[in-house]
């Protein structure tokens, strides 16, 4: 599988490694705590959008989806995935999509 690091030559890789550091275990202790109390709005509900939302919700975050008006009006698969999994859905153009469709 290709990734950014593997596209670099050896000299570039060594330079990048010189800028990196291993994170200590305690840096992960708070997990998603820095997002607690904030609303997370995911644009789109394709395969990745749905799974990311499910993971964030499982971590205790308040997650909603912003979709195109047509996707909501026509009840497209993205709308069905989000609503069938209990997420709030709003129009992409709304400033607060979590308020629900059309509102």
Protein architecture, described:
It comes from Serratia plymuthica. It holds the Pfam family KARI_N. Keywords: Isomerase, Oxidoreductase. Its EC number is 1.1.1.86. This is Ketol-acid reductoisomerase. By secondary structure, the protein is α/β, with parallel strands linked by helices. The protein has a single domain, classed as Rossmann fold, CATH 3.40.50.720. Helices cover about 40% and strands about 15% of the residues. It has a 3-stranded parallel beta sheet. It is flat, with a radius of gyration of 19 Å. The termini are far apart. The relative contact order is 0.14. The mean pLDDT is about 85.
What keyword list fits this structure?
alpha/beta; ketol-acid reductoisomerase activity; 103 residues; 5 helices; Rossmann fold; 38% helix; Ketol-acid reductoisomerase; three-stranded parallel beta sheet
| CATH homologous superfamily placement | NAD(P)-binding Rossmann-like Domain
Q: How many helical stretches?
A: 5
Q: What is the number of independent domains?
A: 1
Radius of gyration: 19 Å
| SSE ordering | HHEHEHHE
Q: CATH topology, anyone?
A: Rossmann fold
The helix content is: 25-40%
- Uncertain residue ranges: none
Mean pLDDT: 83
CATH class, named Alpha Beta
Strand order of the largest sheet: 1-2-3
* CATH hierarchy: architecture: 3-Layer(aba) Sandwich
Which structural class best describes the helix and strand composition?
A: alpha/beta
The global form is flat
Q: What is the CA-CA span between the terminal residues?
A: 44 Å
List how many beta strands DSSP finds: 3
Q: Strand share of the residues? A: 5-15%
């Amino acid at each position: 599988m290709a990734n950014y690091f593997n596209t670099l030559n050896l000299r570039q890789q060594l330079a990048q490694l010189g800028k990196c550091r291993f994170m200590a275990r305690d840096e992960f202790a708070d997990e998603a705590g820095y997002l607690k109390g904030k609303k997370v709005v995911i644009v789109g509900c394709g395969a990745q959008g749905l799974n990311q939302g499910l993971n964030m919700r499982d971590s205790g975050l308040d997650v909603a989806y912003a979709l195109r008006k047509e996707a909501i009006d026509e009840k497209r698969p993205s709308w069905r995935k989000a609503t069938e999994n209990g997420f709030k859905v709003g129009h992409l153009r709304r400033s607060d999509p979590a308020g629900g469709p059309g509102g």
